[in-house]
Amino acid sequence: MWPDGKRCGFVMSFDFDAEEVWIGEDPANADRPGVLSQGTYGAKVAVPALLRLLDQLGLRASFYVPGRVAERYPERVRDIVAAGHEVGHHGYTHTSPMKLTPEAEEAELVRGRQVLQDLGAEVVGYRSPSWEFSAATLPLLLTYGFQYSTNMMDDIVPYRHPGGLVELPVHWVLDDAPHFWFDGASWNKTIRSPGEVRELWQGELEGIREMGGLVMLTAHPQIIGRPGRIGMLDEFLGWVLAQDDVWVGTGREVAGLVP
Predict the structure, then answer these.
(1) Cα separation of 174 and 162, whole Å?
(2) Cβ(157)–Cβ(212) under 8 Å?
(3) What's the CA gap between 64 and 229, in Å, rounded?
(4) What share of the chain is helix, strand, coil (3-state, %, to 5)?
(5) What is the rounded CA–CA span in Å between residue 141 and residue 163?
(6) Helix intervals (H) in 121-163
(7) Integer Cα distance of 172 and 182 in angstroms
(8) Other C-beta atoms within 10 Å of 173: how many?
């Protein structure tokens, strides 16, 4: 399915969660500025640094943004759009659809998309908070005309759901959070080194390339944008772009290739 005889596809995607990921996990975190400051770093420092990096590499990425993050940081979303990157839907709040009634899920879908559209984004892709679907999610995405979802782990090749919605598969191994996220509650989770994570990502890309699939790399600005990691991302993306058999595009562009 890849253009120009390429063997696999690659998308660089970011979940720009800022403070919302902590509030979504526990609403009481809204009153804990120390906890929220971890997400503030993503908007304050990491997104500008990542946009500079992407510009230097000449790479367009897909940013999935909760509506409340866009309300809190509209200038960041405008910067992302102005730089030519895709902006996709990531909920209004960062709340799993499994915790919402169908009516509340619909309200989040509509409100979150409107906020992003008001900032100049053309929103056609949906990434759920927590990569979760409720029984209402797929029908809602079809009703509101979304072109694709990027949430499922049941394949490595993009496919269509019943009704025609395209799915761009993901996986935890290609996400920065399982490797780098510190568990402040238990202190039991070890933070991995950038070199170890790059080795994992490169190995997964090489395996997916052999199978002709899609590498949907998922990163979070507040995580991958730390000073000791952004250099690794630079090196890894430079390696990806140097592969002459890897097609690189945005989520929207991949969705447009699926028969």
Answers:
(1) 26
(2) yes
(3) 20
(4) 50, 15, 35
(5) 10
(6) 137-143
(7) 16
(8) 14
Confidence of residue 96 (pLDDT cuts 50, 70, 90): very high
Q: How far apart are the C-alpha atoms of 231 and 203, rounded to whole Å?
A: 19
Q: Which of 32, 24, 26 is nearest to 69 (CA)?
A: 24
Beta strands in 42-199 (DSSP E): 62-65, 86-89, 125-126, 148-149, 159-160, 166-167
Query: What is the Cα–Cα distance from 146 to 126, expressed in whole angstroms?
Result: 7
- Residue 133: phi and psi, rounded to 5, are -115, 140
Task: Give 127-151 pLDDT, tens digit per residue.
Answer: 999 899 999 999 999 999 999 999 9
- Do the beta carbons of residue 113 and residue 143 sit within 8 Å? no
Distance CA 239, CA 199 (A): 12
CB atoms near residue 93 (< 10 Å) = 22
> Residue type at 131?
W
Handedness of CA 79, 83, 84, 89 (dihedral sign): negative
| Residues in the chain, overall count | 259
The model carries a pTM of: 0.96
